[in-house]
Amino acid sequence: MDVDAVASDLYGLVPAEFTAARNSHVARARAAGDAEAARRIAGLRKPTLAAWASTLLVRHRPEETQRLLQLGQALREAHRNLDGARLRELGHRQHAVLAALARQARDIAAEAGQPVGDGVVREIEEILRTVLTDEQVAGRWATGVLDKAPTASVGFTGLEPGPAVVPTPPESSGATARKGEPEERERKGEKKGEEKRKEEEKRKEEEKRKEEEKRKEAVAAARREAERRDRELRKAEEARDGAGRRLAQAEDRLADLERRRRETERVRDRAREDAEAAARRAREAGRAAKAAREALERLAGSG
User: Is residue 125 a part of any domain in this protein?
Assistant: First the structure.
């Protein structure tokens, strides 16, 4: 059994259909004697709504998917090269791309019969953001098999250039022209202004960094909570499935007992009929024996 093909099929289903379909594949693998495939398929986890909806883009929007992967590659390359200008250019593009793709995923999910709310749309956008910043996540997402939101990469913020990748602003042409001017006070004033601008830029970058850290902490906390809820959901589903199996077994036993009861009643009824018939024959035989004795006695008396 091709486990990868089975996984691709399963993760393309609406999440509500996942567990029953997975169990069916496990049963078929076991019936075929493929214990390893059965084990691997049984280990596949039901996807969260956001993870499933995000991979709908891979299945239904291949061109947009390819453009997103290319954008992520370009962002990571610009980050490696410390290309602040390129990062800013791509960063502005990615905001619009992520929002548009998250909306498309929502629409495709609705067409598949699984509406999603605004909270799930935001989770989808976070998943796609991680696809941009993490090459390994991008590769996994592109297979269309994803059971939960991946942990965001800490090595690349990726969306806006951080302090480490912002180049020092070039000296203005006016300042260059003033290099040769003799007025010492003007040079000092220009130097102080430049220092002030750098301090202001540094302060803004620090605020931006702190805000980004807060956002990441909030996203990480929300993701942990979602993962905890997913674990609780999986446990509840497993308990439900186990209870369902026990109920089915009990119903089978009850049906078997009912069949046995009906059969026993039929045997009892036949035995009762046989007993009544035997009793009738015994009474008739008794009457016949009595008549025979009386006849014998009459004959013996007359002699």
Answer: yes
